[in-house]
Each structure stands twice: as structure tokens, then as C-alpha cells.
Write a structure and sequence with these properties.
Structural class: alpha+beta
Oligomer: single chain
Number of helices: 3
Largest sheet: 4 strands, mixed
Number of strands: 6
Length: 111
């Protein structure tokens, strides 16, 4: 199995871009395979990795339709309802807590 070419930070050749760079250009990878890898070195840690895609094979981002906007609004609203107390928290409930902050801070009563 052939491995991907690896480029150092800021040394990738022209015509390749990361996912975020494609989005900034209004493009998406469109199912194309990853063609290279970008590594950003860090002190005392493993390097940050970003995958590179060909810009010439990228396609425009699909526009948001009214149905997509409605589905996104519904999903965001569902993330604000606390599963413990059932109230709308008014903010996105952190996945680390799994419940609203008042429920997480309330002392657990032994039954």
C-alpha cells in the first residue's frame, strides 16, 4: 500500500488545499481521495496533521435549502433541552455534562 506524501507546514505545492481552505474558497472535496498530508511540528507533542485535496477536482458547496435550514434549527433546539429536568437551558448543553449546569451542580440526593 502506497503512503501519502507528507509536506511540512507552509511548504505544500500549489493546487492543494486543506478542507478549511477549500471551504474558504466556497468549495468542497466532493468525494475525492486525500492526495497528501500536511504536518505542523509542535514542541514536545506529536505534529498536527491536515489532509490535502486537489483544488481542481473540488466542487462548489451545495447551497442551504429551506428544508436544511429547518432541520438545522430543529437539531440545535434539541441540543438545548435538558434530559434531566426537561427545561430549555437557553444554551447548547455541553456533551461532557450531559445535562444543564444547574442539574449538574445540584447535589445528588441518596434515595
Amino acid at each position: 500500500m502506497a503512503s501519502l506524501p507528507v509536506y511540512r507546514w507552509r511548504l505544500a505545492p500549489e493546487g492543494l488545499a486543506t478542507f478549511r481552505q477549500l471551504r474558504a474558497l466556497g468549495l468542497r472535496p466532493a468525494g475525492q481521495p486525500v492526495v497528501a498530508q500536511l504536518e505542523r511540528p509542535r514542541r514536545r507533542k506529536e505534529p498536527l496533521i491536515a489532509f490535502l485535496y486537489r483544488i481542481d477536482l473540488a466542487r462548489p458547496v451545495r447551497p442551504m435549502t429551506p428544508a436544511r435550514w429547518a432541520a438545522l434549527a430543529k437539531a440545535n433546539a434539541a441540543r438545548q433541552v435538558c434530559p434531566e429536568c426537561g427545561r430549555d437551558a437557553g444554551y447548547r448543553i455541553p456533551p461532557s455534562l450531559g445535562m444543564c449546569v444547574p442539574c449538574a451542580d445540584a447535589p445528588q440526593l441518596a434515595a
